[in-house]
Amino acid sequence: MSEMKHNWTKEDVLAIYNRPLMDLLFDAATIHREHHDPNTVQVSTLLSIKTGGCPEDCGYCPQAARYHTDIEGNDLMSVQHVKAQALRAKSSGSSRVCMGAAWRNVKDGEEFDQVLEMVRTINKLDMEVCCTLGMITENQAQRLAEAGLYAYNHNLDSSEEYYKEVISTRGYEDRLETIDNVRKTNVTVCSGGIIGMGEKPEDRAGMLVALATLNPQPESVPINALVAVEGTPLEDQTPVSIWDMVRMVATTRIVMPETQVRLSAGRTEMSREGQAMCFFAGANSIFAGDKLLTTPNPDVGEDMEMFKLLGLNPQKPFVKKSQPETVEANDSQYEALGEKPKWTRPEHKIERNEDAKQKAKVLR
Ligand code: SAM
Ligand code: DTB
Ligand code: SF4
């Protein structure tokens, strides 16, 4: 096996992305087979533990309070409810539960303590636990690790340049800092992005460079196709073509050979043939369950039929890394520091975000 390459440039990556499709697919599939079992796909279930009412202005997101979408907001879910959902996910073949909260960043206090209890509870069910809670400090990452967190998801979403066209309430450097905070613990890093937001292939390459030059590279990289939700600034984006998705997956596989590449949002729009091409190109993980966080996803039964048709097997938990131990709240060696980190707030004007916000005001 060759040494992992970390010095990717945008030119390198764009050249890979633009290769003749058959060459690109062949190389990606070859690299995939050198590093992974091509017939095994990791299955994660998403659980929105705190939905809607988010203060951020992410142009793609139906959970941003400032836009008018038909999302019903909820308070933080109870630990019992989360446990019941995790058991359901386990019985339907998922090895991982990914809990998402519509927060800008984690604040120390009762709600975070409740999330830590959710992490302990799911880890004790022998499932991999992932959280995506917005920006976190090193101390918060350590507390999550101690509770038994397996992965933390924090997407870069696009290139640094295009990020500014989508979000104005936080900066790219905040995202990188959170990833760095997670890296200081034994929690694995899950970070990827979205295609179909109006970005150019150069931006897709830029995002992959930002991820592939992290050392170590993220253990998992979700590739989402934008789900264009009515009321969000990106509601009118044309759907990405399957060819773009396949190119993105294949390029991700080539530049990050060891990573689990997750075929994420947007699968309801993809045919089985399209998804099969993505698996061939190196995707080896999916989100299963009829809902992502707030939008639809293929039915579990249909996914299992597809697995059967393609001869794919769900990956068992903890095959890539051993199960973390759970330390109980009373035995914790970390205390809540109550820090108030100065995450950035660029607040530059993004016209389409402003328009969507104005429209929401009229509709309310
Ligand atoms: N609030 C936290 C944050 O932003 O980091 C965690 C939850 S947030 C919903 C997690 C990720 O979901 C985003 O980074 C984005 O990549 C993805 N996402 C959100 N809305 C989406 C959409 N409409 N289509 C595709 N992906 C989406
Ligand atoms: C990721 O990259 N995609 C997931 C997960 N990580 C948190 C979320 C997709 C959300 C799609 C829009 C929704 O359902 O709200
Ligand atoms: Fe909030 Fe996350 Fe949605 Fe942005 S992506 S609006 S931070 S929930």
Automatic annotation (TrEMBL):
Where does the record place a coiled coil? none
Q: Kindly state which keywords UniProt assigns to this record, in alphabetical order.
A: 2Fe-2S, 4Fe-4S, Biotin biosynthesis, Iron, Iron-sulfur, Metal-binding, S-adenosyl-L-methionine, Transferase
Catalysed reactions, as listed in the record: (4R,5S)-dethiobiotin + (sulfur carrier)-SH + 2 reduced [2Fe-2S]-[ferredoxin] + 2 S-adenosyl-L-methionine = (sulfur carrier)-H + biotin + 2 5'-deoxyadenosine + 2 L-methionine + 2 oxidized [2Fe-2S]-[ferredoxin]
- Cofactor(s) needed: [2Fe-2S] cluster; [4Fe-4S] cluster
Q: Where does [2Fe-2S] cluster bind?
A: C98, C130, C190, R262
| All residue ranges annotated as the Radical SAM core domain in the record | 39-267
For whether the record's keyword set contains Acyltransferase, the answer is no
Q: What pathway is this protein said to act in by its record?
A: Cofactor biosynthesis; biotin biosynthesis; biotin from 7,8-diaminononanoate: step 2/2
EC number(s): the record gives 2.8.1.6
Q: List, alphabetically, the CDD domains matched.
A: Radical_SAM (cd01335)
Cofactor comment text: Binds 1 [2Fe-2S] cluster. The cluster is coordinated with 3 cysteines and 1 arginine. Binds 1 [4Fe-4S] cluster. The cluster is coordinated with 3 cysteines and an exchangeable S-adenosyl-L-methionine.
MF terms from GO for this chain are:
biotin synthase activity
Where is [4Fe-4S] cluster annotated to bind? C54, C58, C61
- The Basic and acidic residues compositionally biased stretches are 337-358
> Quick one: where's region Disordered?
318-364
The record's annotation in InterPro entries points to: Aldolase_TIM (IPR013785), BATS_dom (IPR010722), Biotin_synth/BioAB (IPR002684), Biotin_synthase (IPR024177), Elp3/MiaA/NifB-like_rSAM (IPR006638), rSAM (IPR007197), rSAM_sf (IPR058240)
Q: Which domain of life is it from?
A: Bacteria
Give the protein's biological function: Catalyzes the conversion of dethiobiotin (DTB) to biotin by the insertion of a sulfur atom into dethiobiotin via a radical-based mechanism.
Q: How does it assemble?
A: Homodimer.
Please state which protein family the record places this protein in.
Answer: Belongs to the radical SAM superfamily. Biotin synthase family.
Q: Would you tell me the protein name for this molecule?
A: Biotin synthase
Q: Which organism is it from?
A: Psychroserpens luteus
Question: Where is the organism placed in the taxonomic lineage, from the top?
Answer: Bacteria, Pseudomonadati, Bacteroidota, Flavobacteriia, Flavobacteriales
What gene does this protein come from?
bioB
